[in-house]
Amino acid sequence: MTSFAFEPIYGSLLLTMAVAAVTVGVILAVTPPTEDPKQRRWLITLRLLAATTLILAAFRPALFRTDNQLAEAALVIAVDTSRSMTLPDGDGNTRWKTQIEVWKRLADNILELDRQLDVRLLAYDSETRTVATPSPTSLDSVQPSGKSTDISAAALGAMQAAQGQPIAGIVLVGDGTQTSDQRGSGAQRVAETLNSLGVPLWTVPVGPSGGASASRDAAIETLPESYQLFAGNRLDVKFQLATRGMAGIDVPVRLTWIDANGQSTEIANRQIVPANATDVTPVSIPILTPQPGTYRLKAEAVAVDNELITTNNAQIAFVEVREGGGRILYLEGNPRLEQSFLRRSLRRFPDLALDYQWIPTDTVGRWPVDLDGAFEPGRYDIYILGDLHADALGEEQLQQLADTVGKGAGLVTLGGSYAYGGGGYADSPLASVLPVRMDPRRARSAGGTSNPVAGSQIDTPLLPKLVRSHPITDLGGESPASVWKQLPPLLGANQLIGPKVAPGVQVLLETETGDPLMVVGEYGSGRTAAIAFDSTWRWWKNGRSEVHRRFWRQLALWLLSRENNADSQLVITMDTRRFATDQSPEFRAQVQSLSEPIEPLPLVAEIVDSNGVTVPLNINTENSSTQSSRITQAIRGRIPKLAVGFYRLRVRVESPDQMMPPEELAFQVIDESRELAQPLADPAYLGQLADLTTDHGGAAFLPENIDELITKIKERRTLAETPVVEKFRLGDGPFTAWLLFGIFAGALSSEWFLRRQWGLA
Question: What is the maximum span of the chain, computed from C-alpha positions, in angstroms?
């Protein structure tokens, strides 16, 4: 639209007109008559031309042209780059792929919409980042790797990304799940600020929002990190199956051995049917251990239809299967000091696994106790009976124990008030198993109301005397007998009647007066040991813990027919063998000498990944070689932060001259991301944020309705047109100013020149 107007000086048109009239009158009045009237007319004309030029400059005529133009503004589009974008979106794609398709659709229609619109692409997870030079392919090289999502930081970052420009709108794409710790006032407050500024917030929720099938999840939990087993033994694998949204649905659960070469063998499976929508089912599956070697035991819930999260469907346990048996069951009636130190010694050895069962004497009313098949062949390799009455186990279980010993298990009986004849074993099935004779007249009542029979106990301190050399009683030194003489005296013992006269029965220890203190023998394919004392803990308390451990270990190895296996070894321990990527657990390795201590050995530690790549570790050396611990060298260190996967911690002797083989301990780095633990999107939250700006066009759009969002953005741009006024005023520009000046100066110069020529000047 074009218009014309005057803008006179002093803002008064009348004043300007009056000045013009006066000027014209003055010109006419002051121009004198001439002899030639034609000359007077030329002078008046030139003077009027100069005056007219001044009058036009005083009136200042202006031409106005009005046009509507789009205002300059920024459109910010924020996309989620957290790890939750790798989850399914419910339609067969990943959320990231859906999000890329949304961006490309927007880019194709918005980037070239108009020159005044500045499109800015923002990536967000726990932080926000601007993607330079947005194009339809800007996200093709981006990977969703953020460890958490902060919606409020994304909304605030989108406001700041405009960099002072007016904001045409903000598009927020993502699953709407807040996994970062909330910082600041939150996304709701940012949306309220946008509303106050008249800026619309458009949200595009990506991912399934819920429903019975969308929320399905099965997870394996509480599987032990590691097992130390022996070939051919039975193991009850126990864990929990946690389910959500699977009530009444069959969930297949299976166990798989994975050997050192990565070969998998399924060994057991179960069908679990959860009873409730949210359920935790205990699972126990008995298996037989494989051949000696290192394995991974995988407990897995097979994924069902529409299960979004499958990373928690399995757990791995690291299993070391050793040659032969080494599982020990220790049954005790009176919790004495002996049982505490005996358990401490045997549990220090990785090739011996000890289970302890206390059967209190005040439970006599419920005897015999049911030990759930503990005496079945193959369940345990060694049985230790402490101060426990025969009635606690009952005739049937004792007979089963006798049969199991006859098939190759080991049996140890310790001294005590209810041991041997005093505990009623003389009339039990074990009478034929033990290598000593027993008197049924020494039996005491199970409740403990009767006193021990006279002559059944040795109540004075005694020093065991070595009778014969044997792998059990060889405690080191040049003279085993001298070592026994140097030990602290025992507090007492059972008065055993004597050894049986049978093949394989031997008295190893006796008192100074010849009473047997330790008798060993054989029963069928098994080995037995009858010990009259119960205070070897005094060795440990008096600084001879290495003798205590050696004695009980050598007894266990003899019962296992492995009495020649007690030598030095390299032992590795870790705080945990299954940990998250952001953890750095500590490890410790040491050389243990089970005989005489050896010279300290320089140790090195390294990590070996699944591809065989070796990375050395920083370690601290601990020089702790002592007679009591028999540790000749120890190191300590931490596992660095690693990527998800399986690794091996290897410790070896640095010197190539040493024959001690390296020791390895496998471990797993797992993904416990909060992003992947929440499979459902939260479109309702994104919708609520958009609704806070609904007065200015804010709304939520599904990915399949992205064309509606594009239309909305275009409509908002048409509403952003503003009138632009262009003014062309006479004299404002250099052309018109010089034109007026030229006319004015030319008219006056011409008038003066003519007057000179005509002799009027």
Answer: 178
Check if the beta carbon of residue 159 is closer than 8 Å to that of residue 190.
yes
- Residue the block writes with tokens 């390795």: 589
Return the DSSP state at 285: E
> Could you give phi then psi for residue 460, rounded to 5 degrees?
-105, 155
pTM for this entry: 0.54
DSSP 367: P
**713-729 pLDDT, tens per residue?**
988 887 755 565 677 77
Buried b or exposed e, range 645-673, using 16+ CB within 10 angstroms:
ebbbbbbbbeeeeeebeebebbbbbbeeb
Q: How many CB atoms lie under 10 A from the CB of residue 292?
A: 15
Of 500, 609, 592, the residue nearest 553 (C-alpha): 592
User: What structural domains and CATH numbers belong to the chain?
Assistant: 2-68+725-757 (no CATH), 72-209+680-719 (3.40.50.410), 217-322 (2.60.40.2550), 327-559 (3.40.50.880), 569-670 (2.60.40.1930)
Cα separation, 144 vs 97, whole angstroms: 10
pLDDT in tens, 194-231: 999 999 999 999 988 765 555 688 999 999 999 877 77
Q: Tell me, what amino acid is at 360?
A: P
Give buried/exposed letters for 616-633 (b at 16+ CB in 10 A, else e): ebebeeeeebeeebbbbb
Please say whether the beta carbons of 279 and 247 come within 8 A: yes
Least Cα distance to 632 among 644, 645, 623 occurs for 623
Q: Are 663 and 683 in contact (CB under 8 A)?
A: no
Measured in degrees and rounded to the nearest 5, phi and psi for residue 257 equal -85, 135
Cα–Cα dist 317/373, whole Å: 25
Measured distance CA(474)–CA(192) in Å, rounded? 83
Q: Pick the closest to residue 490 from 458, 449, 520 (CA basis).
A: 458
Both tokens assigned to 310: 């499958």
The DSSP 8-state label assigned to residue 303 in this structure reads: P
User: Using CA atoms, how far apart are residues 425 and 423, in angstroms rounded to an integer?
Assistant: 6
Residue 448 pLDDT > 70, yes or no?
A: no
Whether omega for the bond prior to residue 461 falls within 30 degrees of 0, making it cis, is no
Write out pLDDT tens, residues 130-180. Answer: 988 899 999 998 999 888 899 988 999 998 988 888 899 999 999 998 888
Q: What is the DSSP string of 615-674?
A: EE--EEEE----TTT-EEEEEEEEPPP--SEEEEEEEEES-TT--PPPEEEEEEEE---T
Q: How far apart are the C-alpha atoms of 195 and 624, rounded to whole Å? A: 69
DSSP classification of residue 140: T
Angstrom distances, CA of residue 394 to CA of 359, 376, 388, 423, 430: 13, 15, 11, 12, 11
Q: Give residue-wise pLDDT tens across range 304-319.
A: 887 877 888 999 999 9
∠ at Cα 81 (79, 84), nearest 5°? Answer: 115
